[in-house]
Amino acid sequence: MKKLLFLLFACSILIVITGVSVYAEDLADIKADLADMTNGGDIVYTKPVKAVIFSHKAHVLKLGLQCGWCHDKTFQMEAGAMERDHTVGMASLCNDKYCGTCHNGDISFSTTTQCARCHIGVKGYNRLVKAGTIAPVEKAQENPLETNIKKSK
After folding, report:
1. pLDDT in tens, 118-143
2. What is the per-residue burial (b if ≥16 Cβ within 10 Å, else e) of 66-86?
3. Which Gene3D superfamilies match (predicted)?
4. Overall domain count for the chain
């Protein structure tokens, strides 16, 4: 009888410990998701070329940049604004506009030398769609940006 009670007690403790660790992992995921949403999440641009990725996480969380440093002087804080702006392109970036404001080779890597850091192309875009990380553009027409890329678990 004592062995049975001990076994039940041990199983109860294991269940509680497992529940607490699962709760902690879920809580950590929720906090990370909230941090991503608070900091704008990632954006995949599909115009003027398919596809360019921008990571708010890399800029805000890792580098410590503040929203106001880029918004509203360099970028409008409005979903789809970049894709509706017909002046966006490599010519403007090379003239210190948009991303080129910082990515000029002096402040950060140049937009003319490290293309693949941002340009994921059609293959990269298709990989994200296939993985379910973003919705295809056809399914996201009300918002031309693919925002807040889901975190892979």
Report:
1. 999 999 999 988 988 887 876 444 44
2. eeeebeeeebeeeeeebbeee
3. Cytochrome C3
4. 2
